[in-house]
Sequence to fold (469 residues):
Amino acid sequence: MEQQTKTSGRPLGTTLKPRQLTMMGLGSAIGAGLFIGSGAGIQAAGPAVLISYLVAGTLIILVMWALGEMAAANPDSGAFSVYTARAYGPVAGATVGWLWWLQLVVVIAAEALGAAALLATIFPALPVWLMAFVFIVLLTAVNLTSVKNFGEFEFWFALLKVAAIVGFLLVGAALLLGWLPGVQSPGLSNFTGAGFAPSGFAGIATALFVVAFAFGGTEIVSVAAAETAEPARSVKKAVRTVLWRILVFYIGSIFIIAAVVPVGSAGLKSPFAAVLDAAGMPGAATAITLVAVAALLSALNANLYGASRMAFSLAERGDAPRLLASVSKARVPVIAVLASVAFGVVTVGLELAFPEMVLPVLLNIVGSTCLLVWTSALLAQLALRLRADREGTELPLRMPGFPWLTGFGLLILAAIFTVGFIGEDSRPQLLSTFSLVALLAVANWLHQRRKVPVFVGASEDHKQPALVD
Fold:
């Protein structure tokens, strides 16, 4: 896990600041899954969904620690794809990389359409198709400028979401404590008796599968670390500050929603707005809709960045067309950005032409990707950390409690997969994603057989060949 620096071709930029990386980690975790989707978890498990969030939050902490350890030692735009390749070979690494890229480019289309549809509820005169394409064009322009500009844009997006969460927590606390004039506190009656877990353990398990996806996106910090001036220091700060804030924001928000909005209430379709309405806040629905739009656009911006960097990394390793590795004077992989957004544009066009026929199918296929990426990250960290400890390699950041906490994270993931395969609704999604993984693995295996091994820039420690076409 020794630190390495790319020397082939023009390198990517290194102008991301630690504050931008930290806010990117927060912003990527605080998205529409929290603002809009949290009601689904409460509907499934009742207030006991807090247990599901604690389990999923523990998992993401372990994954972030594992990724942080590897990113601090080896900052690379391919992140977990590169680490998986170093631990288990190029086929595994390329498969994880392409899987993540496919997920992001599909989600880009979903986020553009979702943001446009939400904004249309406030401004119905604006066509959804036009707003979706405007969002994509604007955020593509942001990604084509320097990474510093991207980081600043994402910083303010994330700051808006964090400010909204903090404001919500303050209003919710005042509501529960009875500090709002003319508004009666709902108390904690939702947490007492059978109402705490109306569906029992089955509801908590079902909600766990739903809740896990809410934390998707945090892995982008490991990708962005490669474009900071001091990766080791930046990753340390991001990991240590992001983790506890994610738990405070998520657990705090869900606690307030579960206490105020009862199970079965129509308000769970927009839980944040329901709480603000209960607090007597005028314009709550409009405000939370605008925040949700910002959350979707922030995710679109970050996902386009992540997809382009993964495509660049795959091209650098010979696992994607070489053209994707070309870098502009601003040190941005322009072709990789355009190729990534092109898939999203085509998907948006097809979805608008054939509603509910294209995007839902694609999302179902890549829906479980984040779980597989987290699994690959923990497995890679397990192998690379054992190798580093065996060879006496110093690491800038070390995951505590190794290997027990890594194993615990894998155990949580195994439980989530088990719950997913048992559930009638989630099983087809998992089967579709695993089928995609199998196809990618076969394609990458066939591609690797066409490569010629040459010992160029190989690590003296591992005696592994660098593979080129």
Summary: Strands lie at 452-454, 466-468. Residues 1-9, 454-469 have pLDDT under 50 and may be disordered.
